[in-house]
Task: structure prediction
Amino acid sequence: MRTMELVLASIMLLVSGAAFAGHGCLYEHEIANYINTAFNIEDGTFTENAYAIQTGALEMVDENLADDQDDPSHLEMLLQIKCIVLYNLACLEALENNTEEAFMWLEKAIDTGFNDQVWMESDTDLTGLREDTRFDGLIQKIRTAQIY
Result:
Protein backbone atom coordinates (compact mmCIF):
# COMPACT_ATOMS: atom_id res chain seq x y z
CA MET A 1 0.00 0.00 0.00
CA ARG A 2 1.43 3.38 -0.95
CA THR A 3 1.78 6.19 1.57
CA MET A 4 -1.21 8.06 0.25
CA GLU A 5 -3.50 5.06 0.46
CA LEU A 6 -2.43 4.39 4.04
CA VAL A 7 -2.89 8.02 4.96
CA LEU A 8 -6.35 8.20 3.43
CA ALA A 9 -7.41 5.01 5.16
CA SER A 10 -5.93 6.19 8.48
CA ILE A 11 -7.59 9.58 8.37
CA MET A 12 -10.98 8.22 7.46
CA LEU A 13 -10.70 5.55 10.16
CA LEU A 14 -9.82 8.19 12.74
CA VAL A 15 -12.69 10.44 11.76
CA SER A 16 -15.28 7.69 11.44
CA GLY A 17 -14.19 6.16 14.74
CA ALA A 18 -14.80 9.42 16.54
CA ALA A 19 -18.15 9.84 14.83
CA PHE A 20 -19.27 6.39 15.95
CA ALA A 21 -18.09 7.11 19.48
CA GLY A 22 -20.52 10.03 19.56
CA HIS A 23 -17.93 12.80 19.61
CA GLY A 24 -18.29 15.89 17.52
CA CYS A 25 -15.78 15.59 14.71
CA LEU A 26 -17.11 17.79 11.95
CA TYR A 27 -13.98 19.90 11.87
CA GLU A 28 -11.72 16.83 11.90
CA HIS A 29 -13.78 15.47 9.04
CA GLU A 30 -13.29 18.73 7.12
CA ILE A 31 -9.53 18.59 7.74
CA ALA A 32 -9.43 14.95 6.61
CA ASN A 33 -11.31 15.80 3.43
CA TYR A 34 -8.94 18.68 2.81
CA ILE A 35 -5.90 16.44 3.33
CA ASN A 36 -7.34 13.91 0.89
CA THR A 37 -7.24 16.50 -1.88
CA ALA A 38 -3.42 16.25 -1.75
CA PHE A 39 -3.54 12.77 -3.25
CA ASN A 40 -4.23 11.37 -6.67
CA ILE A 41 -6.06 8.17 -5.79
CA GLU A 42 -5.78 6.73 -9.30
CA ASP A 43 -2.00 6.51 -9.39
CA GLY A 44 -1.12 6.77 -5.70
CA THR A 45 0.86 9.99 -5.94
CA PHE A 46 0.75 13.40 -4.37
CA THR A 47 -0.97 16.15 -6.36
CA GLU A 48 0.93 19.16 -7.64
CA ASN A 49 -0.25 21.37 -4.77
CA ALA A 50 0.13 18.71 -2.04
CA TYR A 51 2.66 20.67 -0.02
CA ALA A 52 0.38 23.70 0.25
CA ILE A 53 -2.53 21.46 1.20
CA GLN A 54 -0.52 19.71 3.91
CA THR A 55 0.80 22.96 5.39
CA GLY A 56 -2.72 24.37 5.32
CA ALA A 57 -4.01 21.29 7.13
CA LEU A 58 -1.24 21.65 9.70
CA GLU A 59 -2.34 25.23 10.36
CA MET A 60 -5.96 24.09 10.78
CA VAL A 61 -4.95 21.38 13.23
CA ASP A 62 -2.74 23.73 15.23
CA GLU A 63 -5.52 26.33 15.43
CA ASN A 64 -7.89 23.70 16.79
CA LEU A 65 -5.31 22.44 19.26
CA ALA A 66 -4.82 25.98 20.56
CA ASP A 67 -8.57 26.67 20.79
CA ASP A 68 -9.93 23.42 22.20
CA GLN A 69 -8.31 21.96 25.30
CA ASP A 70 -11.47 20.54 26.92
CA ASP A 71 -12.14 17.27 25.10
CA PRO A 72 -9.35 14.69 25.44
CA SER A 73 -10.70 12.50 22.61
CA HIS A 74 -10.89 15.53 20.31
CA LEU A 75 -7.33 16.47 21.20
CA GLU A 76 -6.12 12.92 20.61
CA MET A 77 -7.71 12.85 17.18
CA LEU A 78 -6.18 16.20 16.26
CA LEU A 79 -2.75 14.97 17.34
CA GLN A 80 -3.16 11.81 15.25
CA ILE A 81 -4.09 13.89 12.22
CA LYS A 82 -1.13 16.17 12.93
CA CYS A 83 1.22 13.14 12.95
CA ILE A 84 -0.06 12.11 9.53
CA VAL A 85 0.30 15.61 8.11
CA LEU A 86 3.84 16.00 9.46
CA TYR A 87 4.75 12.61 8.04
CA ASN A 88 3.28 13.59 4.66
CA LEU A 89 5.38 16.75 4.67
CA ALA A 90 8.47 14.62 5.30
CA CYS A 91 7.54 12.38 2.38
CA LEU A 92 7.01 15.34 0.08
CA GLU A 93 10.39 16.81 1.02
CA ALA A 94 12.11 13.44 0.61
CA LEU A 95 10.61 13.00 -2.85
CA GLU A 96 12.08 16.39 -3.79
CA ASN A 97 15.48 15.37 -2.35
CA ASN A 98 15.19 18.03 0.34
CA THR A 99 16.90 15.85 2.93
CA GLU A 100 17.27 18.40 5.74
CA GLU A 101 13.62 19.43 5.55
CA ALA A 102 12.47 15.80 5.31
CA PHE A 103 14.32 14.91 8.49
CA MET A 104 12.96 18.00 10.24
CA TRP A 105 9.35 16.95 9.44
CA LEU A 106 10.00 13.30 10.36
CA GLU A 107 11.41 14.31 13.72
CA LYS A 108 8.39 16.54 14.36
CA ALA A 109 6.06 13.69 13.37
CA ILE A 110 7.76 11.32 15.79
CA ASP A 111 7.82 13.94 18.56
CA THR A 112 4.07 14.41 18.01
CA GLY A 113 3.42 10.68 18.30
CA PHE A 114 4.08 9.02 14.94
CA ASN A 115 5.25 5.51 15.82
CA ASP A 116 4.81 3.25 12.80
CA GLN A 117 8.37 2.01 12.51
CA VAL A 118 7.51 -0.76 10.04
CA TRP A 119 5.78 1.65 7.70
CA MET A 120 8.56 4.20 7.92
CA GLU A 121 11.15 1.55 7.11
CA SER A 122 9.23 0.35 4.03
CA ASP A 123 7.73 3.59 2.69
CA THR A 124 9.17 4.13 -0.79
CA ASP A 125 8.74 7.89 -0.41
CA LEU A 126 11.56 7.80 2.15
CA THR A 127 13.97 5.60 0.19
CA GLY A 128 16.41 8.47 -0.31
CA LEU A 129 16.73 9.00 3.45
CA ARG A 130 17.58 5.47 4.54
CA GLU A 131 21.32 5.70 3.91
CA ASP A 132 21.58 8.71 6.24
CA THR A 133 22.46 7.78 9.84
CA ARG A 134 19.73 10.14 11.06
CA PHE A 135 17.14 7.73 9.68
CA ASP A 136 18.37 4.97 11.99
CA GLY A 137 18.37 7.47 14.83
CA LEU A 138 14.70 8.26 14.22
CA ILE A 139 13.84 4.56 14.05
CA GLN A 140 15.59 4.12 17.40
CA LYS A 141 13.62 7.07 18.79
CA ILE A 142 10.37 5.30 17.81
CA ARG A 143 11.56 2.04 19.42
CA THR A 144 12.50 3.85 22.62
CA ALA A 145 9.16 5.65 22.77
CA GLN A 146 7.28 2.37 22.36
CA ILE A 147 9.03 0.90 25.40
CA TYR A 148 7.61 3.57 27.72
Q: What stands out?
A: The longest strand covers residues 39-40.
